Every structure is written in structure tokens, then in C-alpha cells.
User: Which sequence fits this backbone?
């Protein structure tokens, strides 16, 4: 069904990973080689986290500034590029307070859980051709399952803070994330139905001759829209930022956090945004797969010359920009409207949609 | 029809959101609309209107002469006790005693820039200056003496 | 559970919104009793920014006390000053020159536009949209620049004096105002695009914070808050001062009494204000900008009251004079205080998020409430 394009192989990162792998296996015993590889991967993930945090914070500030007819950060470094370093430094040297009445253990644990969940979600994502941490055959299931844990960190933070605002933010967030997981899951399911596989690699390979958003006609477009709305809600971003709700709950579940503990929540939010956008890009926009149009061989070849990692990050950042665009345009929903939207609009639409997608998959109506 | 109404409702909702996104998208791409003024950098080109009420000053001419007669009209007009006129008696060359100001003390920290003293002054001795960067490290620096040391009243001002 | 609303029972959440809270735009302190997300009771605690302005005014002369009123409702400081000047003029029976009257009305309407613009941005922020705030400030800045050129200040102008205005208008004033109106017309539909038409916004505002006409009267609400409930209480129409009876404008009324109605009243009032300015800006009569007054003003013994329509409602000045140079007693009727009192009635039974939106639509300025 799908052909393999080897043209962009010279750009591929898999050469590097394979070289390192074979060198380690030659030098050490397989067990030690695995351990070293895990260490390298861990370091890579942590540095990716740091870089993502810095880039996304700067991006959000610039996007919001330009939409609000402001200049945005422009003091630290050339054109304000180092602004997020300055922010990080400030958060690092700030005292991390723990309130007196707080449940100290849970209060200090919560940001780390948020962070660990975000880290775990990185595992099945293919960042480029043949470049991923763990090629598991239940990638989609893994992502939906692990991302549900993030609500625990928010509930923990809200409850342990011993603050009424935090508690309300946490409760709101609990109701919100649990509800919106349904339609996010159904939207993801439509692609699984079309592909017939839970493996993210298979899903990407199935889009070699066209991304699902183009191949899947209107039903997949609808699931894409629902997916974007649902993940915006799941990551607690405006217009669904009821867990933070600045004008109502001051800062929601992280009202009492400061310093590095706050920074971890902050970072986890951005990394979560990155991950859900990466999943969205993988499922609907073909992951690292270049843009191909049917039989236009010449055009397809030119597209293949663009490295696969650029394709992946380009698509992901496009989705992130979309989510930021939402945030800086829309007012916030009320809690009952938020749940109404999910249970009265998104869920029925996505349930009906999944029937359409299933029919389409059975009848083979997609390209 | 319920279904048609439902779909229409959803569509109009999405459309209203897209209209808003078009507006913010327009500003995102049109950077000439940005209105930020980079204040400390644009200090040289900053044009304050001539009527701007920054602080009360007493203009002196090149002969170090001012127009203040010491009539205390400004002191009386001030709602906050910002201005204090301390007078003395000058001995004119003809040997006559003449009332003049020794010091015109101006408490910038009390001033609300209401302009009443400037309006009240019969001889236009005090005016509002356009300075607005009044921050100092010591509060005592905000108490100013408006007349220059050794200054005299201008001839012909009664 | 309607019967539970209004009573505190075990398990209710009592939260303090303010005095330091992003939604209160100042130091308002609301003690809110919540049942889950539902508001059961709202209790405003005042006094955090009480400066005893009324008492202060008793020691100031009739020329001096006007500047203090800029510090009350600082968003409509011109109109506050105007009310005080009117009261003093009433007592002294000063005839204000036609030129001063026109200038005063133009300034009032500019202030009203600026105030409503700021309210629009702040209100958008209350319901979670951050971008409109900056867009609103762009328009407001243009007005502030006009004010700065003529009055010499951006916020507390102290431009109205008994008998007229302090200084004549700047030569550029008319051109600047016309430029502003032309600029404003190009940006006018932005409020509809960003907020009014938005489905989320409509759902947030429609049907919440209901205030009936009777309640608006009994709580003493005035201004756009009451006009959103269909109460025609525009002082400019009911008791026209200056030249308001010779300009044509419409008293904006909405009948539904919810948050959206109050929002729409303010947006439509901006258009009426522009309408008024356009009628007057080319027709500023020549003549004095200030009537000749005595150096020391002494109001005759008696009581004087005058009222003006600020951006928030009716602002009344009540002076009791013993015949001296300073007022014996002065009382300001500020619109914010009465409007705030309706908040508890409106908010009961609604959600916490709506309470914040209601506070936004009341357009509270805290120094105006506390004085």
C-alpha cells in the first residue's frame, strides 16, 4: 500500500543513532550498552525539555505581543531571544515557599508528577524518520493512558496547597480533563480505525501517499477539529483555562507555588502542549512524512529533500501556534458551559463521526 | 428541522470564532500597527506638549532676574500647602524698604499639578515645566527652592 | 436548591476576593459564600482606599476643592470636576460663556469615550480575553494625548474651574479630535469582531446578572447599569445641563437587564458620544473661555445641589454653605457605590465566573466607591 522514499535518507538521524548503537555494542556488553543508551536518551529528553520550555515560552510571549499590538520581549539578547533564559534564572533563584498549612509531601510531589507525566509521553513520538525512543506497538493507547495521569498532579497540587482557590481550580480541572479525554480519545480512534494499527510508526507510514487530513475527507477533518479543541481543554489552555482562570481564581491550582516548583508546572504545561500537538501532527498531518501530492513525482522528490525532522517540527509548531492563537483571541468559558460543550456538542458529534469514519474504512472510501 | 438547526448553530458559532481569529491574525502579521513606545530609548525624540504639567518652576532671564514679587497669591491658591513664600525686605538704592522674596520653597512631593498657582500668579513668575522624571533617592531632594541664589526681581514688575 | 441561596450552612466555601485580586481592579474586598461553584452571597467590604475626600473638601476653598474630585472617579475626572464647577456656579449664579460650555461638553464626551474604552478592555480581561485590553488602550491613548495637549495632564486634568475652563483649547484641538474620530471609526468594528459577536462571549453574558427595572430603582443604580435594565435615567436628557438640550443624541436603553444589556449600552453610548462631539467640534463659538469671577469665591448661605452624568452614572455634588470661603459640608453622590450595592442581588445563584463578569459590567472604580 505504501512505498518507501529513500531519497531523504542522507538527512536521516537514524544513521547517527545506528552508529552510536553499534559502537556501544562493540565496546561493551549488551546490558551495559543498553544502560548507556538509556542514559543518553535521558539526557536528550531532559535537554529537549529545557529547550522546548525556553522556545515555547518565548514563542508564546512573542505571539501574544504581536496579537496585542505590542513588541514583546526585546531587551535580553538580540531581539529578546534570551528572555526565557532570564525568566528561568529568576525562577531558579527564587525561594520555593511551602505554605504552613499545606500537606508538605504532596505539595512538593505534585510538580514532579506533572513533569514525569510529560516526560513519559515523549517515549512513543517519532521525531524524525526512524528516530524515536521506543517503537511500541500500542503507541496511541500509551499516549491516551499516560496523559490521563496529569490530572492527578493538578488535583494533588490543588488539594495539598490548603488554599480555596487552588482547590477550586483543581476540582474544575478534574471535571474538565476527565470529560475532554472522551472526545480526544474518539478523535484519535478515528485514525486508528482508518489505519488499523495502534502503532504510531504504522500510522505515519500509512500517510506516505497523503496525510489523513486530506485523505480522510470531511469526517477526519471533523475529528481533527474536535481533537484540537479537546487537547486545548486537556492542557488547560485558554479558552479552557478554568483551572488557572486568572481573573476568577488568581492562579488556580498553582496559586501557592513559587520558584522552581512553579517553573516545573509551567514547563509541564508547555511540554504537554508540545506533546499533544506532536500527536496531532503524527495522526492527522503525517508526522515526519513529507507533503506529497498524488502522482506529481517531481514535486514529491523536492519535498523529500526537506529533512524529516523539519517536517515534524514544522507541523507541530504550526499546531502549537494554532493553540496559542486561540488563547490570545477568545474569552474564557464558564465551567457549566465547558461541560455542556463537551457532553452536548463534542461528544455526540465525535460519536456520530466515528460511525462515519468506520463506514468509510470498511467501504474503503478514502484514498 | 432539529438537525439543520443544530448544524446551523454549530456553524455560526465556529464562524464567530473565526472572525475573532482573523482580527488577531491580522495584527499578528501587520507589525506596523504596533504602538509600543520604548520609553527610555525614545527620550531624545519624546515630545511633550507645551502645556504638560510636570513641576512648577520659576524662569529666570540671563541677568538672573525673576518676576516674583512675593505676593503669596500662589501660596494661598495652593490646596496642599505645596508652596511657601519666605519674604525679606530689600533696601533699594534710594534707601527705601522693598518687599521681595528670600526663598520660594516648593514641595514637589505634595504637589498635585493642579495648575492653580500658575493661574493665580499675577505677574506670571511661575510656570509649569515639562519635566516628569522626578524620582530621587532622598525625599529631601524633592523640596526645592525655585528662585536661583542671588537672583533679583526684574525691573518693572510690581 | 433555591431555598439554600442566601443562607450560610455547613460546608459552604467562604472565599475572600480581594483586596488584592486580579478581578477587582483595585482594592475592593468581596467576601463570597460559595456552594461549590454557585454564589450564595456576596458581601462587599469597603474602606481600603477611603481618603475622606468629603472632609478634606471642607477645608479647601471653592476653587481648590475641585481638583480633589479628579481623584475619586479617576476615569471620568473631567465630568467630576464639571459637576463641582456646576454646583459652585449655581451658588454664585455665574453665567458660563457659550464657548466654555461647548468645550466642557466636548471634554465630557471625550472622557466618556475614554472611560468606556478602558472599561471594555478591562471587562474583556475579566472574562478571560486578554487581547482586547491592549486594543482598547490604543484608542484611549489617543484621547489622552488630546487631553494632554489641551489640559496638560492625562488623568487628573483639573480643567474645569468655576466660571468656565482653566485654559483655552489648544490650536490643534479641533483637528486632533477630528483625526481621532476618523481613526476611531476605522477601529470601531473591532469590538464586535473580538468580543460582541463571539459565541463564547455571548453565552457568558446573555441572561446572567439579571437586574430588573424595579430593582435598579430600589438599589439606586444609575448610568449604563440602570439603562441596561430599561430605566431612563440619563441626566443629560432628564435635567440637561450646559448645552445638552441643544445637541441631538439618543438615550441608549436596553431592556433585558442582563450583563449583555449593560455591555451593549456602553458600546452604543460611545457612538452617541461621537455623535455629540461631531455636532459640536466645528461649532465652537468664539468668545471667552471663562466668565469673570471674583478672586475669592464666597457661596451665599444655603444648600446647593447639582448633578452630572459621568461614565458610570449620576454624580451629585451637594454643598452646604455658611457663607464663608470654604464649604460647611460637602457630599458627593458617587455612582459606583449605589451600583455596587446591586451586586449581591444580581450575583446570587450564579456561578463564580459570572460574578466576575458582572463586576466587569458594573464598571466599578474603587476610589469612586470609597472616596
Assistant:
Amino acid at each position: 500500500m505504501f512505498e518507501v522514499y529513500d531519497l531523504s535518507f542522507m538527512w536521516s538521524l537514524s544513521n547517527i543513532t545506528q552508529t552510536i548503537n553499534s559502537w556501544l555494542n562493540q565496546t561493551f556488553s549488551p546490558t551495559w550498552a543498553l544502560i548507556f543508551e538509556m542514559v543518553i536518551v535521558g539526557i536528550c529528553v531532559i535537554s529537549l525539555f529545557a529547550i522546548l520550555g525556553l522556545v515555547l515560552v518565548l514563542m508564546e510571549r512573542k505571539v501574544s505581543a504581536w496579537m496585542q499590538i505590542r513588541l514583546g520581549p526585546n531587551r535580553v539578547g538580540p531581539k529578546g531571544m534570551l528572555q526565557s533564559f532570564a525568566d528561568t534564572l529568576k525562577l531558579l533563584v527564587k525561594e520555593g515557599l511551602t505554605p504552613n498549612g499545606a500537606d508538605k509531601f504532596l505539595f512538593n510531589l505534585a510538580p514532579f508528577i506533572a513533569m514525569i507525566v510529560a516526560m513519559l509521553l515523549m517515549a512513543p513520538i517519532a521525531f524524525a524518520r526512524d528516530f524515536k525512543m521506543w517503537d511500541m506497538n500500542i503507541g496511541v493507547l500509551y499516549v491516551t493512558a499516560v496523559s490521563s495521569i496529569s490530572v492527578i498532579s493538578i488535583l494533588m497540587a490543588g488539594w495539598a496547597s490548603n488554599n480555596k482557590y487552588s482547590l477550586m481550580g483543581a476540582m474544575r480541572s478534574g471535571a474538565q480533563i476527565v470529560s475532554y479525554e472522551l472526545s480526544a480519545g474518539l478523535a484519535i480512534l478515528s485514525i486508528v480505525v482508518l489505519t488499523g494499527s495502534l502503532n504510531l510508526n504504522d500510522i505515519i507510514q500509512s500517510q506516505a501517499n497523503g496525510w489523513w487530513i486530506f485523505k480522510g475527507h470531511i469526517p477526519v477533518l471533523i475529528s481533527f477539529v474536535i481533537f484540537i479543541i479537546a487537547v486545548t481543554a486537556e492542557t488547560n489552555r485558554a479558552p479552557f483555562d478554568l483551572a488557572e482562570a486568572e481573573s476568577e481564581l488568581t492562579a488556580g491550582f498553582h496559586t501557592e507555588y513559587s520558584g522552581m516548583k512553579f517553573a516545573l508546572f509551567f514547563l509541564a504545561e508547555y511540554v504537554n502542549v508540545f506533546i499533544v500537538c506532536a500527536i496531532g501532527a503524527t495522526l492527522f498531518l503525517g508526522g515526519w512524512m513529507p507533503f506529497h501530492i498524488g502522482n506529481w513525482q517531481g514535486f514529491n522528490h523536492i519535498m523529500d529533500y526537506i529533512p524529516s525532522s523539519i517536517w515534524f517540527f514544522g507541523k507541530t509548531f504550526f499546531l502549537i501556534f494554532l493553540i496559542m492563537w486561540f488563547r490570545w483571541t477568545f474569552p474564557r468559558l464558564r465551567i457549566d458551559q465547558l461541560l455542556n460543550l463537551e457532553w452536548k456538542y463534542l461528544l455526540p458529534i465525535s460519536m456520530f463521526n466515528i460511525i462515519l469514519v468506520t463506514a468509510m474504512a470498511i467501504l474503503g472510501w478514502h484514498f | 428541522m432539529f438537525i439543520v438547526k443544530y448544524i446551523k448553530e454549530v456553524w455560526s458559532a465556529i464562524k464567530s470564532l473565526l472572525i475573532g481569529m482573523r482580527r488577531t491574525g491580522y495584527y499578528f502579521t501587520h507589525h506596523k500597527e504596533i504602538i509600543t513606545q520604548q520609553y527610555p530609548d525614545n527620550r531624545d525624540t519624546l515630545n511633550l506638549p507645551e502645556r504638560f504639567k510636570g513641576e512648577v518652576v520659576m524662569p529666570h532671564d540671563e541677568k538672573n532676574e525673576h518676576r516674583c514679587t512675593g505676593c503669596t497669591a500662589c501660596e494661598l491658591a495652593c490646596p496642599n500647602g505645596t508652596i511657601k513664600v519666605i519674604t525679606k525686605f530689600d533696601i533699594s538704592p534710594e534707601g527705601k524698604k522693598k518687599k521681595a522674596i528670600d526663598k520660594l520653597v516648593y514641595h514637589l512631593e505634595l504637589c498635585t499639578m493642579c495648575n492653580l498657582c500658575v493661574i493665580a500668579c499675577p505677574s506670571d513668575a511661575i510656570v509649569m515645566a515639562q519635566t516628569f522624571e522626578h524620582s530621587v533617592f532622598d525625599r529631601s531632594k524633592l523640596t526645592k527652592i525655585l528662585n536661583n541664589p542671588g537672583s533679583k526681581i526684574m525691573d518693572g514688575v510690581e | 436548591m433555591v431555598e439554600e441561596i442566601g443562607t450560610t450552612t455547613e460546608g459552604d466555601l467562604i472565599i475572600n476576593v480581594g483586596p488584592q485580586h486580579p478581578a477587582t481592579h483595585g482594592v475592593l474586598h468581596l467576601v463570597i459564600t460559595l456552594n461549590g461553584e454557585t454564589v450564595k452571597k456576596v458581601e462587599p467590604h469597603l474602606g481600603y482606599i477611603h481618603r475622606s475626600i468629603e472632609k478634606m473638601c471642607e477645608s479647601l476653598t471653592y476653587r481648590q476643592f475641585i481638583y480633589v474630585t479628579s481623584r475619586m472617579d479617576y476615569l471620568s475626572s473631567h465630568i467630576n470636576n464639571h459637576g463641582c464647577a456646576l454646583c459652585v456656579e449655581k451658588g454664585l449664579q455665574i453665567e458660563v460663556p457659550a464657548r466654555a460650555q461647548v468645550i466642557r461638553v466636548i471634554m465630557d464626551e471625550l472622557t466618556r469615550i475614554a472611560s468606556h474604552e478602558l472599561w471594555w478592555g478591562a471587562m474583556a480581561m475579566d472574562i478571560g480575553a486578554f487581547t482586547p485590553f491592549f486594543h482598547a488602550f490604543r484608542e484611549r491613548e489617543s484621547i489622552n494625548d488630546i487631553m494632554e495637549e489641551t489640559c496638560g495632564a492625562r488623568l487628573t486634568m483639573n480643567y474645569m474651574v468655576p466660571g468656565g475652563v482653566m485654559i483655552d483649547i489648544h490650536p490643534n484641538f479641533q483637528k486632533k479630535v477630528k483625526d481621532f474620530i476618523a481613526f476611531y471609526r476605522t477601529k470601531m468594528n473591532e469590538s464586535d469582531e473580538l468580543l460582541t459577536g463571539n459565541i463564547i462571549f455571548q453565552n457568558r453574558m446573555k441572561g446572567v446578572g439579571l437586574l430588573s427595572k424595579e430593582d435598579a430603582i430600589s438599589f439606586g443604580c444609575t448610568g449604563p447599569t440602570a439603562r441596561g435594565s430599561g430605566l431612563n435615567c440619563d441626566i443629560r436628557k432628564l435635567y440637561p445641563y450646559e448645552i445638552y438640550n441643544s445637541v441631538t443624541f439618543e438615550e441608549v436603553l436596553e431592556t433585558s437587564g442582563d450583563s449583555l444589556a449593560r455591555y451593549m449600552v456602553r458600546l452604543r453610548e460611545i457612538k452617541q458620544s461621537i455623535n455629540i462631539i461631531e455636532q459640536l467640534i466645528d461649532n465652537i463659538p468664539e468668545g471667552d473661555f471663562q466668565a469673570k469671577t471674583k478672586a475669592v469665591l464666597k457661596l451665599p448661605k444655603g444648600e446647593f445641589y447639582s448633578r452630572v452624568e459621568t461614565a458610570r452614572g449620576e454624580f451629585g455634588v451637594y454643598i452646604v454653605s455658611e457663607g464663608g470661603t470654604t464649604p460647611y459640608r460637602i457630599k458627593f453622590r458617587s455612582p459606583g457605590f449605589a451600583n455596587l450595592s446591586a451586586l449581591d442581588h444580581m450575583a446570587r445563584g450564579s456561578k463564580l465566573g459570572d460574578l466576575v463578569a458582572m463586576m466587569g459590567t458594573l464598571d466599578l472604580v474603587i476610589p469612586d466607591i470609597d472616596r
Remarks:
- The longest strand of chain A covers residues 126-128.
- The interface with chain B takes residues 63, 66-71, 74, 325-326, 328-330, 345, 349 of chain A (CB under 8 Å).
